[in-house]
Amino acid sequence: MKRRELLKMMAISAGSVGIPLLSKPLFAQSSQYTGPLFLTLQVSGAWDVSSFCDPKINISGAAEINRWSQTANIQKAGNIPYAPFGNNSALFEKYHKDMLVINGVDTQTNAHSVGILHNWSGRNAVGYPSLPALFSATYAPNLPLSYINFGGYANSAGLVRYSRLNGIDNLGELLIPNVADVDKSKSYRNVSDMEKIAALQQQRLNRLSNNEALLPRQRNNAAAYAAALNNGADLESFANTLLAVDSFQEDVEVGGTGSSDLLTQIQLSILAFASGVGCSGDLYVKGFDTHNDHDQDHEPRLAHLADAIDYLWTYAEEQGIADRLTLMIASDFARTPYYNSTDGKDHWPIGSVVCMKKEASWGNRVVGSTDSAQAALALNPTTLLQDDNGVVIQPGHIHKALRTELGLDGAGLSFPFELADNLDIFNPAL
Predict the structure, then answer these.
(1) 270 FRET partner, CA 20 to 30 A, in 250, 316, 344, 395?
(2) CA dist 360 to 168, 207, 363, Å?
(3) In a domain, 214, yes or no
(4) Measured distance CA(335)–CA(51) in Å, rounded
(5) Nearest CA among 122, 89, 200, 116 for reference residue 425
(6) Domains in the chain, number
(7) Does any domain span residue 299?
């Protein structure tokens, strides 16, 4: 189904032919969630932080780290240094006040699977949930699209169910399940039948709820079923939000390295948040595993990433939710501080994480550092200043600090998923 076909179907379904989009009498009122929001942006394949937020220049007598530093110098926006590469300037100059850069993050691996696990769960062993899962389970687990995932790591550890959206094309059946034919002029059931079905569904749910013999898994499924029955008004709000959109983002070609649907992911996430049907999600962009022709392929990818981040905040502002949103950007790990024999860069365990929030008190800061060869430098756990006798930042430190910043510590959900000792990374005084 094409995007314009979806909108046409929704408009017809809500219009003169009399097919209810989602019939209000059958459902509870929309919850209209208005609390905090959280997104991760998973940069798949391992980004080159020495050409992004941890810029390095070539050192005489050492292996060449970056070709861009042959003709350019490290730039700085506010307190944040950045590389003049891949349209980085526009991003950092516009958003440095809303940005915390965490450098020298040791993922302790060169393997994609472990790096993904470590960066997105806070631990390099299986079993821990993603931050959006913890966030969703804490704030609004019963929303119809509470936790949205477009790919990448999404382990919820049984706390919540995530919804996989692969673009706008698959939303038709979800939002308009009662449309029966190709020209959208007929429904499977009339309104009277739908009311009877809803009543029978509620009766069955009541029987399940009163059955003391249910096993925990069956009880959880019954609770999810109850939430689904009560989500109709929320989904109608989402449908109406989509109907009001003038145009949807299309996949874009990225410098000859393949297409990306990241802008579509962002648009759908922001619209879901704005309509009150979701509160967290994972965005996912691939193509950064540049073992060959690194500069040629990596630069357009970084430029696309920078443009997408700008679009995310611009669109969130247009939809009135920017002041509620926190964004975490990271990758599997980083790329080597030198080129290989095919002008590519291979895997490197020391990377970076970027967190963003509008007018954040902790913005315009860099925590952690690396040396000229991109080796992690230890920092004092109290002052966060470089200290040879201190600790090296690991993903678990960032996750624990983000849990505190996002208000997840007091909810009781993170208790079974304890992490490393806390580093006060988001303290604006440090």
Answers:
(1) 395
(2) 32, 48, 5
(3) yes
(4) 10
(5) 122
(6) 2
(7) yes
Domain boundary among 231, 251, 271: 251
Per-residue three-class SS string for 187-244: ECCCHHHHHHHHHHHHHHHHHHHCCCCCCHHHHHHHHHHHHHHCCHHHHHHHHHHHHC
- 144, 136 Cβ separation under 8 angstroms: no
Nearest 5°: phi and psi at 344?
A: -100, 180
In the numeric block, the tokens 């193509």 are attached to 287
How many whole angstroms separate alpha carbon 164 and alpha carbon 147? Answer: 9
CATH of the domain at 420: 3.40.720
φ, ψ at 310 (rounded to 5°): -60, -45
Range(s) of the domain holding residue 13:
1-30+169-251
> Are 50 and 14 members of one domain?
no
Handedness of CA 368, 372, 374, 376 (dihedral sign): negative
Tell me the mean pLDDT per 10 residues along the chain, length 430. Answer: 52 40 37 91 98 96 95 97 96 98 98 98 95 95 91 92 77 62 61 80 81 77 66 71 84 92 96 93 97 97 98 97 98 98 98 98 98 97 97 97 91 78 94
Helix pair 88-95, 294-318: axis angle to 10 deg: 30
